[in-house]
Amino acid sequence: MRRTALLVSATLLTGMLPFAAAGPASGADEPAPVPVPVDNFEGEIPFANPPAEGIFTWGSDADDPPTLRLAARDDAPQGDKVLAGTYDISGYGGFTHDFAFAEPAHDWSASKGIRFWWDGRNNGKKVNFELKDGGANGEASELWTTSFTDDFTGWKQLEIPFTDFTYRTDYQPVGGIDQVLGLTETWGYALTLPVGVKDEFAMDGVELYGKADQALRANVVTDGAVYPVKEGRSAAVKITVATTGSAPIEQPVTVAYETAGGTGESGKDYTPVKGELTFPAGTASGASRTVTVATLRDKAAENAETVPLKLTVTGAKAPAENPQVVIDAHGLPYLDAKLPVQKRVADLLSRLSLAEKAGQMTQAERGALTAPGDIAAYDLGSLLSGGGSTPTPNTPAAWAKMIDGFQLRAQATRFQIPLLYGVDAVHGHNNLVGATILPHNIGIGATRDPQVAHDAGKVTAAEVRATGIPWDFAPCLCVARDERWGRTYESFGEDPALVESMETVIQGLQGAADGRDLRKNDRVLATAKHFVGDGGTEFGSSTTGSYTIDQGVTKVTRQQLEAVHLAPYQDAVDRGVGTFMPSYSSLDILGDGKGAVKMHARADMLNGVLKGRMGFDGFVISDWQAIDQIPGDYASDVRTSINAGLDMIMVPYAYKDFHATLLDEVRAGRVSEKRIDDAVSRILTQKFKLGLFEKPYADTSGASKIGSGEHRAVAREAAAESQVLLKNAGGVLPLKKSQKVYVAGSNADDIGNQTGGWTVTWQGSSGDITDGTTVLEGMKKAGSSVTYSKDASAPTGGYDVGVVVVGETPYAEGIGDVGNGNDLALSAADKAAVDTVCGAMKCAVLIVSGRPQLIGDQLGDIDALVASWLPGTEGDGVADVLYGKRAFSGQLPVTWPKSEAQLPINVGDTAYDPQYPYGWGLTTLTKVSSGGLATLKGLAVAASLAERVGSEKAGRAVVAKARLLIQQKVGQGITPAVAKPFADADHLLLTGKYAQAVAKLTAAYKAA
């Protein structure tokens, strides 16, 4: 069917379109505007990438971008061809048409909207449609979005008025421009296709339609949507007229106002107001008037009451919603800060409806809110920022303003329960540009210093809370058992004893174990994740997209589960951690008859072990959309997870569906009200402990310390202590200031690579993404003569020593799994740089990575080798140990393998033949213990004494001396007979068995 035939049916459907907006009637003699073609898909627009004009695809991982083709179709609505393709998306994916950057942007401001033909599949899924507006080019513009639902079959012309587009709050590629959809500089459009359905699509005839209503260039706005006020006081609502481009208004604008509706009673709770404001033609953009609403005091204890102010606008676009005055709740026991938390919780819980309780158990992504008023409409208990979900601009002030805006919305609920806002601040406030970024956990584990872990948590907490965020989804207490896992760097190490020793980070984040410090402005609620066994998933067991190991299956005996994976979590409970997050992975306990069961569905582990045996009294939050992975329909997912012990569910996009489904499940008796009350009590307890009822808004008094010298000094020390010296032939390190140093390698001067994943964005990215000092910059400050050639193409003659900084580029989670486009080998460019430099001079190679890299084939040509991990923003810390300002002291937190075939390889394995054993780490101290077996015998006596008197400091010092002595004798001659007792000794040290540790080291010495 050609376009002429379809236009007949399209005309009939125009009034039925869910997002069609009626414009003002045109005069009888005024011709209809001629449509402006954008894309006919006849081959006039190529498949190409920016900066050229073209259509291109994108997605969250390798298999998420859709396929695209120009397909000849007999039923094409316009011409002979259509844009067609297939998709099967697990994360996100879609396609974009960008206009050429080298040419002027397109002016769409004269048109009413954009329309196109869509071949409906009737799958009920939403498709997001996005415009690129303003800015320098298509990749530096503002993003404006709306959506349509594919709930029809066959071709249908969809019309979207430009007034339907809203500013994207979940992601913007640049800082704020003006946050006005001007349409005078349009750079293209994009479609984001549905997730979780394998399907085809077809699109044709994109064009602009209609004539813009000039009156809609003027907008009436209020200075807020919610105006909380204490009973008996007045609220001032500021009403402003504004125009695109700040031009004076072209015609009069009137605003009629009236208090009407709401839960407040006119004449009893407030004095009614009614009237009209006029802004004459020529009024300057930004002119304001104020309407005052007075509330009345009746002295009775009450919940909050709302007084909407209805605004009727003529001559301009009205506000998206009417503002409402809220008379604060008062006189109720739960508001009394002098009462014990338990009594406050019980009082508030007794007042809540089932719907309000369900809302407290619901967490949405901030950018997924279909309307800000949904916070109150659904009584949402929590919002989060996913990785990279930031305000524009991405500044501390913008974060605080954004979160205060969300908290203000929560004040419009009956009991004004504040939101609990959460972020993944896993190595500093890593979503915030300019924050102090600390080493990832694997580097913190390499320090073997519990004080470093504590201080890292303290810096993170201070910077996070200063932007208004009271909750951190950290720390990760996983025990990483296979370096092919894309989350290896989120672990402190492969030994549960090491992980436990680093849990001082919880006190750094939260303060005292009893929670008394949580209300302070430099503390946050911590989250122990991911319970339990995520670090033990088998390679090849994942069923998530193209992941190979992340979110897979952990197969263990009951004894292995207890000894390896569960052990760190009891310590977290004892330390008072406020929340737990289950793992995406499945747990298969051999012999229990259950098989592999998703952790979000394991009541035996969540209710039985965590809340029962371990005595955890905080609340359990799900991972991102994790309940969707439980087998069964959505209702089954909801009831299974809640009954298993989850208290709050992270449903970033499905908060409405979850809220409704949970209510249905309770009313049907499949989830008990007792279970709901338990969950809500746990959530409210943490909100009261955090002091949110008294201070829901951001305390920004600590914002000046974000990225401060004081905080960066902590990160610098952590970076220095995390450096592990694996080899140092001929004493190449430390460098001397007088030496001429040749620096090369892809990671020497790249702050993005140095900080890794979970930095500014979820996956992280290469390049100058945030403030900090690269390794190269640190070296230039520390040394007198440093020359840099990234690819080692510059002449290599005349230098005393070379430093080659190589390794990985950023990734996060399963995207980084080996086999998912990744391996453990250096890139060809990095290998070439190592060969060039190390073939020309003495050299040190630094590996900046989230896990060990296979370097054995080049090890013989390398004089010094350093595992630098992901040191964060403070490259000065790396330079400190390179130049001897402080000695190398780091130790391997994971075993360094010889080959991928050895994986998984861990301390305690029966067969153990690594490149470098767990715990290995040379020093650049000028003095190392000597004396051989005689010295070891004396150290054994001292170790026994330290153990008897319980002196951890003395015990660690004794074992450290023995370890350094062994390493000095062994050199690079590491055999299985040396490696196994050496690694075992470090585990014994961490468990307080100092005498046994020295005995193991003595065995390693004898085997060397």
Structure commentary:
There is one protein chain. The termini are far apart. Strands 1, 3, 4, 6, 9 and 12 form a six-stranded antiparallel sheet that branches. A six-stranded antiparallel sheet has the order 2-5-11-7-8-10, with no helix packed on it. It has a six-stranded mixed sheet with strand order 32-37-36-35-33-34, with helices on both faces. It is globular. Helices cover 26% and strands 21% of the residues. It has 23 helices and 37 strands. With 1008 residues, it is an alpha/beta fold.
List the topology elements:
Blueprint: H1 3-13, E1 36-39, E2 54-59, E3 67-72, E4 81-88, E5 93-98, E6 113-121, E7 125-137, E8 140-150, E9 153-161, E10 166-167, E11 186-192, E12 198-209, E13 218-222, E14 226-229, E15 234-243, E16 253-259, E17 274-279, E18 288-294, E19 305-314, E20 324-327, H2 341-351, H3 354-360, E21 362-365, H4 374-377, E22 382-385, H5 396-410, E23 420-423, H6 441-447, H7 450-465, E24 471-472, H8 496-501, H9 504-510, E25 527-531, E26 553-556, H10 558-574, E27 579-582, E28 586-589, E29 597-598, H11 603-613, E30 619-620, H12 634-644, E31 649-650, H13 655-667, H14 673-689, H15 709-722, E32 724-728, E33 740-744, H16 751-755, H17 775-782, E34 785-788, E35 801-807, H18 828-838, E36 843-848, E37 864-869, H19 875-882, H20 932-949, H21 952-970, H22 976-990, H23 994-1007
Parallel strand pairs: 14-20, 21-22, 21-31, 22-23, 23-24, 25-27, 26-28, 27-30, 33-34, 33-35, 35-36, 36-37
Antiparallel strand pairs: 1-12, 2-5, 3-4, 4-12, 5-11, 6-9, 6-12, 7-8, 7-11, 8-10, 13-15, 15-18, 16-17, 16-19, 19-20, 28-29, 32-37
